[in-house]
Design brief:
By secondary structure, this protein is mostly helical. It is built from 14 helices and no strands.
């Protein structure tokens, strides 16, 4: 216990705690978009598609943090928006196009990184290493989260119409195609800002579980956004305090905690109603 208290006084611990709060809230807030669009598996595939952007950025510019983030964003946009474009202009549906693009991109990125001798770095990008986040990484995560919250808040009403009834949105003059591309772009930016914290494989849990938890308890969309943000931040902070004494990987602990919170919400949800069935 004394070791943990001393650890909390170190800058790396304080920065990691702030990262848990910022990354957890931004992902939890945006997770409502993923749940309401019913696109969880699509987002999971995009998160793995970030790897080739990282690999190409390192290949051409070296281990520069800014170039790595930009490369990941570009790769995510190419795969995410490219799959939308292919599905709209060809005979393949969106899921098929996304599956082909993301697996091809992931394989290419993995080959490049292994050839560069960065096996250890591959593990960090796939599973995260929140303790290695610097001040610049934290500012990027904060700025991306602020952009996401502001954008969703300003466009809240037309966004809800689009999410629940795309045809009605189009008939009302809402630019549905622009909303599709915009939502994908916003999600990819948040994914990239969280990449160092929880990695490409685990970020799907952070991007889905908070709003999915709220969805078990309420039908109000506003509560899914803000409640999801609070669950994401609170669950990540709780994981921080659990991971050190238990000796667990922090990124994985965050996903385990959020998964447990989801299961509790499901058990006591109005539909399942564990307490109601007991009564």
């Amino acid at each position: 216990m004394n070791d943990f208290i001393r650890f909390l006084g170190e800058p790396i611990a304080q920065r990691s705690l702030w990262a848990c709060a910022v990354v957890g809230f931004s992902n939890g807030f945006v997770s409502a978009l993923v749940v309401l669009r019913r696109s969880s598996l699509q987002i999971g595939t995009i998160s793995c598609a970030l790897l080739p952007g990282i690999a190409l950025a390192i290949l051409f510019f070296g281990l520069m943090q800014l170039s790595i983030l930009i490369g990941a964003v570009i790769a995510g946009l190419i795969v995410g928006l490219g799959s939308l474009f292919i599905s709209r202009t060809g005979r393949a549906d969106h899921d098929t196009a996304l599956s082909i693009l993301h697996t091809t991109a992931f394989a290419l990125g993995y080959i490049i990184l292994i050839r560069l001798g960065l096996q250890q770095k591959v593990d960090d990008w796939l599973f995260g290493n929140i303790m290695s986040m610097g001040d610049a990484d934290l500012w990027i995560a904060w700025g991306t989260g602020a952009l996401a919250v502001l954008s969703i808040t300003v466009l809240y009403r037309p966004l809800l119409i689009y999410l629940f009834d795309m045809r009605a949105a189009a008939s009302m003059g809402i630019p549905t195609r622009a909303f599709s591309y915009g939502i994908f772009t916003l999600i990819i930016l948040v994914l990239v800002s969280s990449l160092q914290a929880v990695g490409a494989f685990l970020t799907l849990g952070l991007m889905v579980a908070p709003a999915a938890t709220m969805y078990q308890l309420t039908d109000r969309a506003s509560l899914m956004f803000w409640g999801g943000g609070l669950i994401g931040a609170g669950g990540s902070i709780l994981a921080f305090f659990l991971s050190y004494p238990l000796g667990w990987h922090l990124g994985a602990t965050i996903i385990v905690v959020l998964g447990c919170i989801f299961l509790l919400a499901w058990l006591f949800s109005p539909k399942f109603g564990l307490l109601r069935h007991r009564g």
